Amino acid sequence: MRAVALVYPGDLATRTGGYAYDRRAFGALAERGWRVRHVALPDRFPFPDAATLAAADAALARLPDGLPTVIDGLALGAMPAVAGRHGRRLDLVALVHHPLCLETGLDPADVARLRASERRALAACRRVIATSTATAGALVADFGVARERLTVAVPGTDPAPLAAATGDPPRLLCVGTLTPRKGHRLLLQALASLRDLGWSLVLAGSTDRDPATAAAVRAAVGDLGLARCVTLAGELDPAGLDAAYAAADLLVSASFHEGYGMALAEALARGLPIVAASGGAVADTVPPDAGLLVPPGDAAALGEALRRVLTDPGLRALLRAGAAAARGRLPRWEDTAAAIEGALTALGGDAAP
Questions:
Q1: For residue 349, what is the DSSP state?
Q2: Domains of the chain and CATH, by start
Q3: What is the separation of C-alpha 288 from the centre of its chain, rounded to a whole number of angstroms?
Q4: Cβ atoms of residues 192 and 271 within 8 Å
Q5: pLDDT tens per residue, the chain (353 residues)?
Q6: Is pTM beyond 0.85 here?
Q7: CA nearest to 305, candidates 281, 314, 295
Q8: Helix extents (H) in the chain
């Protein structure tokens, strides 16, 4: 049986897109006959302390020579020295959801440090898996990754029934952990200009991972006079999230950057039209006939796009038809696993980095 190690920080059951990718993609890889060895690192990344780096070094040291070892980029990019020590002994593979330095809210010094750190860590890996073509392009252009060492393994999406889309007033849904990168406050600013219209919004995402951002979002709801139409639902379990999608009429996102945008794909699987910021890979994920995309960080443009969709049932119906048409083109998790398997199989023909 072929074997691979999957190395990640924290708890693999965490309900974020990156952790969901790791769970589902490597679960599907196991179904293809691979023995997956899970290696959990301390949950201090991407800003590890000395003890965390020592624990990561010890965890990799326990792996046998030559074992294909996939390290989630949330950890890898912040431990270049550890990766360098084990890069020749293990067949290291980077799994990059999006570059660490593109996280919103970092100060310039952290951006520069993380960019240099991730570049060094990637150089220690035999292959690199990116979760979108946009992220792959950034790794080539900005991080010195050779294109021939890259594999794109787009997240899978489970089939789902079409949402009923019968809300009157329209029901908006935003899915994502409350962190600065997701742009929740910008979304609320855009919606504050639409208080003359009838709508409701559910924010579905953890309020615990970044308490300061969650507090700022709650304050913005009150300050902007949106308490009657905005619900902070917190982190939903799978059944609760399915119900939220089923009840929605429109998926909205103000995220400044997405390595892929799994919530957007989940919306397409349910035939939901989308209004979103176009940062990162969003334009690759959302077909032009399924959503309206605006520049990231532009509250006025986002508000205008939302006004168009909320006030024009015909446009909403056209976008819904486009989203429904996209359902059959969405990749499945077995496709993701097949792409990862290709990267792992190619290790035998790679020269050391």
A1: G
A2: 2-156+332-349 (3.40.50.2000), 171-329 (3.40.50.2000)
A3: 20
A4: no
A5: 799 999 999 999 998 889 999 999 999 999 999 999 999 999 999 999 999 999 999 999 999 999 999 999 999 999 999 999 999 899 999 999 999 998 888 889 999 999 999 999 999 999 999 999 999 999 999 999 999 999 999 999 999 999 987 767 899 999 999 999 999 999 999 999 999 898 999 999 999 999 999 999 999 999 999 999 999 999 999 999 999 999 999 999 999 999 999 999 999 999 999 999 999 999 999 999 999 999 999 999 999 999 999 999 899 999 999 999 999 999 999 999 999 999 999 997 554 44
A6: yes
A7: 295
A8: 17-31, 50-61, 73-76, 80-86, 108-123, 133-143, 184-192, 211-223, 238-247, 262-269, 282-285, 299-311, 313-326, 333-346
**Contact of 173 with 230, CB cutoff 8 Å:** no
- In our burial notation (b when 16+ CB lie closer than 10 A, e otherwise), range 147-172 reads eebbbbbbbbbeebeebebebeebbb
Pairwise CA distance, residues 298 & 128, whole Å: 33
Residue tagged 């989630």 (tokens): 72
CB atoms within 10 A of CB 342: 13
The dihedral built from the CA positions of residue 60, 66, 69 and 75, taken in this order, carries a sign that is positive
Which of 273, 279, 275, 266 is closest to 304 using CA atoms? 275
Report cis status (omega within 30 of 0) of the bond before 169.
yes
**Distance, CA of 194 to CA of 306 (rounded, Å):** 8
